[in-house]
Amino acid sequence: MAERSKPTLYRYRFGAAEFDEARFELRVAGLPVDIQRKPLEVLALLLAHAGEVVTREELLDSVWQGRPTVDNVVANAVAKLRSALNPEGAGYIITQPRVGYRFHGPLERSAVGRQFSSQLDLAPGMGVPARPNFVLREPLGGSRNNEVWLARHAKTGEPRVYKFSPGGERLADLKREATLYRVLRENLGERADIARIIDWNFEAPPFFLECAYAGQSLLAWSTGAQGLASLTREARLALFLQIADAVAAAHSVGVLHKDLKPANILIHPAPEGGWQLCLSDFGSGRLLESARLGDITGSGLTTSGAVLDDAGSGTPHYLAPELLAGQPPTVQSDLYALGIILYQCLVGDLRRPMAPGWERDVDDPLLCQDLSSATDGDPGQRLGAVSDLVTRLRTLTQRCNAQQQQAQATAQAQQAQRALQRSRARRPWLAATLLTLLTGLGASLYLYRQASISSERLQAVNDFLYRDVLANTGALKTDSDPDPGMRRVLRHAADTVGERFAGDPGSEGWIRNGIAQGLTGLGDYAAAEQQQRLAVDLLGQAHGPGHPRTLLARRGYAMLLLEQSRFDEAEAVLSAVDDLQRNASAVDAEDAFVLQALRGMLRAARKDCRGALGDLRSAQAIALPPSPEATYNLFNVRSWIGEALNCLGQHREALAHYQQLLDKLLQKPQDAEALGPALIAYARLGQAQALQQTGQAGQAETTLQAALDQLERGVGDSDPFTLGQALVVAGRYYLDAGELARATGYLERGRQLLLGVDERQEKALNALRMLASIDYCQGRLQNATLRLGEARAALLDTWGPNAPDTQAASFWLAATLLAGGDSAAANSLGSALDADALALAMGGAGWVQKLATLRRVAEAGEPGGADRLPQALCPAPEPLRASGSASPSAQLTGQGL
Questions:
Q1: Residue 583: what pLDDT?
Q2: Residue 619 in domain
């Protein structure tokens, strides 16, 4: 739509408000108002037609220029405008139902300047306004209704580029570009690949930016005789990588470009030869983090809202689909535009659209993958950052070689598979896995005995077996469909590795450590513990007790004990590791991280939630080198931090913590694959508890069920520890909600799974205690007494009488004995209870009152008191579900690093 001709600019005053068209600035009570661009454009149009109704269609056409928008975008802009004007000024904006809006009320208007027409009244040979030494030579084009001119110094001939604004309504765009350039310069320094802004004029029309000359546009250059079509594919990729590096650098300091296209990329001969590309025109850009402004905001150039807001859409062909749908821009939307430019560079035509069937134009399958990953219609499926695309392109040769090697390995594996099928193996896929493992072990042993490879090569073979075959078996690591047949593979490896690596305790111990991790993931804890102990002994023989591999095996043993709720044994192992690491000359960051995290988990399992929070936050503060393992471990520790916050009753902080943790997965979806279904599901369980505790029962249950579904599909019964604990958490949720039948189903199934881990596993005992409390609430006193007696005896033997879980079992046993008429026994148990310990074990508030009620009935033998006691102790049914309490202990899971 053509912009309306408006030769004169005005300053409007109404009430305590003043709007200056030349500066495109709103002031209320003399102070500038920080408001987004679009509401100001709405105000300008209403003031220009004061007293008239401006329809919604006219506002969409003029302010949004017909671009796709979200629903109610006009109403939202008017609401923001009214809020900025304060109650007194808001009354000037009148809604005309089902039609539009109008300005109504006294209005003063005074001319403040002249707005150029679309031609700006500029011509070659004219001096640049306010720069008399520079003379306009020729127009270079325009961007977003700005005119761009080449000028030269009258004496030296030095070229400069001036970007003029056609009116005050575009002044904010120039300010935005200048501000973003200063952010880039102050954070990145001067860069040859980002156009340099020398100066600006924002005081009087015509407003302009003064820029260093950086050549012609890539679009114009590409059509010349020595343009893009004359270059090899490698040379075109090298040019593209220059501009991708510039965009990645801008993203690294929080600046989005939002209008990436060949016309905004400049090119000129580089001093050392070849071509230098330069990214220009940040007039549509956006700053993602206000903190990046630093002292720039105070310079008077702009307000934070101007650069944190969106200045409008980019060029349609390069717009990501989510922007057309009205969603906010992200690094993935810039990445989408870069993907289009990459395609155009590869085909040698910067005007060719990337239409369906584009794959036929690119003969390299790896480049096709890269293009697909950059331009996927779903931003969540794109690469996480422009730097990821740069890395892929720079390693194209290595990736090609690796792909060829992988193809050869796949062909060999397929050949082995066919041979196994011919032998009528009952499970060919299982036999192939076994063959891979045994072949690798045999090759390692043979080459070792023949002394035909170095120790480094032998170690590399062992590392492959450990990392790629053994250690990744467990469901808690990365597998979404764990193979139960792998137990047979691992047990067979455990039986043969000692003979094959006789006399080589280092290799045998390292492989047994991997076997132990795999068996742990499959829930075979007895076999895993045997292998883990052997691994610690063998690695200690080979390398010494303080060697990193020995310490790693010891930490794995501590984690294995922790998952089985053998806390005293786990504490002893961790203390030994702590002593060894303390005496070491240097401790690896990952080793320090894991030890600190394990200490936090152990404290959490023992209900020392405050101490656990301190340990876990200390672990989080340790900087780890980037790797998939670091991503996994950091997410795990952060999930535990949320659980500790829930345990401490800091549920709102926990909710914000989980929201931030899970939101990051939306920004980097590739992390979800590295984390695996179990770890993400556990974070969602913690989020569900925080939601329930903050009164959001409906959303809490939705989140809880989504987590359980993710575990059922991704893990299932093949990992009884992981799924069993989650089911106990669900049982606790529904018990607190008063849905006793649903709670019973989850608790029974969860307990049965956990009994396969250890009869005294913490969650299994707590599930038994909760089932007994349900028996009590439903009047099944004999069942309740038997179950509580069993649970309390095991808890008492494991942790002693003062542990929170033991206290919880004692509380319900006292209530059950009281209901059965044994006031003396109930009184004896009740007198030793502590309300704080009960709150830690069972969550929620009111335990002081509940404990006092129990003691009063038990001590006084109050007539009918025992009959009324369930009303005070048992969870409320459905009507009170929104304020129900979830046990903090239910979220302190035994996840492993």
A1: 72
A2: no
